[in-house]
Design a protein that fits this description.
Chain lengths: 151, 122, 332
């Protein structure tokens, strides 16, 4: 049996990815997490003196705090199995990636273990966020100085 | 119209997650690749000036997904570039966003002090 | 190449231990010991992993009435953690001549083959062979942190917390005896998905089983059961489909079983079933030994499969090379 024949057998037997089911679950749970975030923004606007533009920061921090609790009690993992991108894409997923790595590497000590591994999973998000921001802003600056676009 | 407001947050936030799910399922990307792609997408949208209107529309539906992280970094860099030119591109990035990263570090550290990894199913 | 053991070394005694989650296993009642704390009351998962190995060996010695570690000539074992430190650390405590063996999840059988060879050679009176895995330490090694919320597909498998070890000695009638073994080649049919180990490993199992049957001039039906290691539910189906294509009949396909596919029963939360070096080891060296001892099975082929990947090789875009080793065990 060669590789191609095997591939056919394997593809026939391997259950297909449940695309629609995954999409619906990601939509509902992702939407729900954002709705909770939305409620938190109202909370900060009404009870503290945050404005629509500044409220993003305390909201993100609160969501990450909630993610920490869920991660620590082993609940975010279960949520992730059901929700897929629905729980990975919101900032809580970023928090989960950081917190889970921190907990995991505790046994190697606070400096080399926690400190060295805390961005093991989430680090790529920061790297690509910063790098892409640099290039986008640079391109914009060039285009503006050429007079193609305005700020 | 607070109901519409929340509904928009739900729908837009949900749709961004659906894009992530498609990247994972159809594009066969790992979660790290998916999130990195979305962050870059957020940066580009910010560069085009399209992300701010999305936030005005959806509120947390646009600020909670990781795409907003790219948007915040880029908006910061662009705002500083506008004021200070070339140097601003580098210095402006973390002007707007820092809470996601700083809170993740702080809470991650605290969690490491409190919790132990558990290998339980269900 | 098939190895024939003319002196038919016997499995004198077996020891198996498992973690708390393995209470859900259909083989639960066959395990010698189940511990409530997956870390075995140690500080780290890796220390718990090593304790689990020591405990399985202690159980064997008790069963075989061996009081002195020095009476055991060899300890042949492996696990999946980097450089196999849990096994190395357990060997430090056991103080028995030791070779660490790595065939990933196929170590349960590769170690048994080497133990049988040493016995056949007359170099060993008693040798302990087997392998183990501890869920938490293996998951962090190969995948994500335990509490990371990633989505696993239906083809994924759950690494067991379990250890299984066998004491191999000179032939004794009425005990399961090793008559032949096949050391497998490394087979790679290009599977790259680390969440589809069954699909990666099935060709290796197919290759080893077929080669064993051919060299031994046997049919599938010469066996009461052919049990693979941890192909999982989907991997086992693939293996059966491969044999079906070579002309195996339905009743012959019924002979194939898989420890990983059966381990957690029909519980969907374990996806395709169990995996890990402790999966095949804990089933072979508890359930299977007892089935042979009680005479329910007279001749079995145990074919443990192993995926020889690392997170590094996966990230560098390599496909997953796999191996499978088989032993033929009979009882008179």
């Amino acid at each position: 049996m060669d590789q191609q024949q095997y591939q056919q057998i394997e593809d026939k037997i391997t259950p297909p990815t449940p695309y629609l089911k995954n999409i619906i679950k990601a939509f509902l749970i992702g939407g729900l997490i954002c709705t909770i975030g939305h409620a938190i923004t109202y909370f900060y606007i009404i009870f503290f003196d945050f404005t629509e533009t500044t409220v993003g920061n305390p909201t993100a921090a609160t969501m990450v705090f909630l993610a920490m609790l869920l991660t620590g009690f082993g609940l975010y993992r279960k949520l992730g199995q059901v929700a897929g991108a629905g729980s990975a894409v919101p900032v809580t997923g970023f928090g989960n990636a950081v917190v889970s790595a921190a907990i995991e590497h505790k046994t190697e000590g606070l400096v080399l273990g926690v400190g060295g591994n805390i961005f093991k999973l989430a680090g790529s998000v920061i790297v690509f966020g910063v790098a892409s921001a640099f290039f986008v802003a640079l391109i914009k600056l060039i285009l503006v100085s050429m007079g193609v676009v305005e700020w | 119209m607070i109901f519409i407001d929340f509904l928009l947050a739900f729908v837009i936030g949900g749709l961004i997650c659906v894009i992530g799910q498609l990247l994972m399922d159809v594009g066969k990307l790992t979660p790290a690749h998916t999130l990195s792609t979305l962050v870059v997408a957020g940066s580009i949208l910010a560069g085009l000036g399209w992300y701010e209107p999305l936030i005005d529309l959806a509120g947390a539906g646009a600020t909670i997904p990781i795409t907003s992280f790219g948007n915040a970094l880029t908006s910061g860099a662009i705002a500083e570039a506008e004021k200070h030119g070339w140097v601003g591109v580098l210095t402006g990035m973390f002007e707007v966003t820092s809470s996601g990263i700083s809170s993740a570090i702080v809470f991650g550290f605290i969690a490491a002090l409190i919790f132990k990894p558990k290998g339980k199913v269900n | 190449m098939v190895i024939l053991f003319n002196t038919k070394p016997s499995i004198i005694a077996c020891g198996s231990v498992a973690g708390p989650l393995e209470k859900k296993s259909v083989f639960y009642s066959y395990f010698d010991s189940v511990v409530e704390d997956e870390r075995w009351n140690q500080q780290t998962n890796e220390q718990g992993h090593a304790m689990m190995i020591q405990e399985a060996c202690k159980i064997i010695m008790k069963k075989a009435n061996i009081t002195n570690n020095l009476d055991i000539d060899y300890f042949l074992s492996g696990d999946l953690v980097n450089q196999m430190t849990p096994t190395n650390f357990a060997a430090r405590e056991l103080a028995i001549s030791f070779i660490g063996m790595f065939s990933a999840c196929a170590t349960s059988v590769s170690s048994l083959i080497v133990a049988s060879l040493l016995t056949e050679l007359g170099a060993s009176k008693y040798a302990i062979a087997g392998s183990s895995s501890q869920h938490n330490s293996i998951e962090r090694q190969f995948r994500y942190p335990i509490d990371y919320g990633g989505q696993k597909p239906e083809t994924a498998q759950w690494t067991v917390t379990a250890a299984g070890y066998a004491l191999v000695g000179k032939h004794q009638p009425n005990l399961p005896s090793i008559v032949a073994g096949t050391i497998g080649k490394v087979v790679d049919y290009g599977e790259v998905n680390p969440f589809h180990m069954g699909g990666a490993m099935a060709p290796a199992a197919f290759d080893t089983i077929q080669s064993h049957l051919k060299k031994r001039n046997q049919k599938i039906s010469d066996y009461d059961v052919i049990m693979t290691g941890d192909l999982g539910k989907i991997g086992l189906k693939i293996l059966k489909a491969m044999f079906a294509q070579t002309g195996a009949k339905q009743e012959e396909l019924e002979i194939f079983r898989d420890a990983g596919a059966e381990f957690y029963g029909e519980d969907k939360s374990f996806q395709s079933g169990a995996s890990g070096a402790g999966c095949s080891a804990s089933v072979y060296y508890s359930y299977m030994e007892q089935q042979l001892k009680t005479g329910r099975y007279k001749r079995v082929l145990l074919c443990a499969t192993g995926a020889l990947l690392s997170p590094l090789s996966f990230q560098q875009g390599e496909s997953i090379p796999c191996t499978a080793h088989a032993v033929e065990i009979t009882v008179e």
